[in-house]
Please model this.
Amino acid sequence: GMLLAAGRLSQRKNFALAIDVLSYLPDHTLTIVGYGEESGALRAQANRVAPGRVTFIPQLSSRGLANLMAAAGTLLVTSYEEGFCLVAAEAMAVGLPVISTRCGGPEHFLPQSWVMSGSMAAEMATLVKSVRNQDAVAHVTQSWTAATYVRRIEGIYRSALHGAVVPIEAMGAA
Model:
């Protein structure tokens, strides 16, 4: 299957972890969309760890990324630190399962079985395998269609207008 990772190629995004995952998943490929200062080091690592199995795409239009998401099996979020993590929400909106490190944002809206407890490539690979065995797409499409998301955001705004404090978890899947 095809794994996907997207973002700035910086140390904070930790794309080295996504490449290392391939050593546990010999039947998978990885496409990394993005550019940045870590590009050379990541390409060298890919040639060492998984020759011929990692594709780098420096830039892609929004439509191009959406098409890639439609073709991928799983999005990997490997960051040490994230805010909301828009790419994870975009992936879920098109029915693409997301496996993520515990980095500050995604764990508040992803199913907990998709969030790593540690930071090792072996664990991420195990989660990639397990997500294929779950009814992942059904969960994602029910929880993250544009209409469902809009209703969730409207509810948060209504609560805020009435003076309620809304935790970030309220944005996540029920």
The chain has seven helices and five strands.
